[in-house]
Amino acid sequence: MRLPRLLLVEDDPVSASYLHDAASSLPALVDMAATIADALALAKRQPHDLYLIDAHLPDGRGEMLLQALRDAGIGTPALAHTAARDPGMRERTIALGFVGVLHKPIGVAGLHEALREHLPGCAMPARSGGKLPNWDDAAALAALGGQQPHVEALRGLFLQELPGQHARITAAVHAGDDAGVRAELHRLVASCGFVGAARLAQAVHALQQNPLEPEALQRLHFAIDDLLASA
Questions:
Q1: Smallest Cα–Cα separation from 140: which of 192, 205, 200?
Q2: Which element (helix H / strand E) includes 30?
Q3: Which ranges in the chain belong to alpha helices (H)?
Q4: CA atoms within a 13 Å half-sphere pointing along the CA-CB vector of 152
Q5: Which residues, in sequence order, are CB contacts of 61 under 8 Å at separation 6+?
Q6: Mind listing the pLDDT tens digit for each residue in 104-163?
Q7: What is the DSSP letter of 130?
Q8: pLDDT at res. 131
Q9: In this model, does residue 213 exceed pLDDT 50?
């Protein structure tokens, strides 16, 4: 059976390494480019089943690359990926011709689900019930180059910092400081992605959608308390 072939367009080395390794484990063949110019050259030289295009590239925006591909007669579907989370991002990106938007950092399971949705003949595995695990070891290993000692060291630092972050988020919520909550959540979700804190990342994403919502904050409390207790 032929493996799907993807073109990943990402200029940040850390994000590129993580997304490459995570997508490869689908399994899939993954070509990489860091600029619009390199991506166009690769796309014209090698057919792909799906493009993963960063919204912001050194030589232009992701939609500029997508338009150049369409102008060249290449109709391969494209997913955008971005760290931005403003409410209208998905609608604007779909309107520009992308089939979907991935928000970084994204866990391996979430990435695989999105890829399978847009790859013909790539069936979804059965879902397992229950809550997400506290730690996604595969995601952390992929993000940190497969080095287990690095994962353990970074998780130790993450757990040391977590109570302080928790306190700052709680204080900002109670003060009605929407901007302060968002700033702390932005830092926390990036850390979650590197250490594979899957359940906590899910709770952070929920609170990012409604930074002053009591129920979302309670879910964050539970996720942090559970993570710290498990450690």
A1: 192
A2: strand 29-33
A3: 13-24, 36-45, 62-71, 89-95, 108-118, 137-143, 148-174, 178-195, 198-209, 214-230
A4: 3
A5: 55
A6: 888 888 888 889 888 865 544 433 344 578 888 887 887 777 778 888 888 999 999 999
A7: S
A8: 57
A9: yes
- Residue 110 CA to residue 103 CA, distance in Å, equals 10
What the block records as the tokens of 200 is 């906590």
Contact between 65 and 57 (Cβ < 8 Å): yes
Q: Tokens 């200029």 label which residue?
A: 11
pLDDT at res. 118: 86
Count Cβ neighbours within 10 Å for each residue of 197-209 and write b for 16 or more, e otherwise. Answer: bbbbbbbbbbbbe
For the residues 21-26, what does the mean pLDDT come to? 83
Percent of the chain with pLDDT strictly greater than 70: 94
Environment class of 175 (CB within 10 Å of its CB; exposed 0-12, middle 13-18, buried 19+): exposed
Place of tokens 């309107």: 95
Closest CA to 75 of 100, 50, 96: 50
Of 127, 113, 109, 107, whose CA–CA distance to 79 is shortest?
A: 113
Determine whether 60 is exposed, middle or buried from the number of CB atoms within 10 Å of its CB (0-12, 13-18, 19+): middle
pTM of the model: 0.54
What is the reported pLDDT for 70? 94
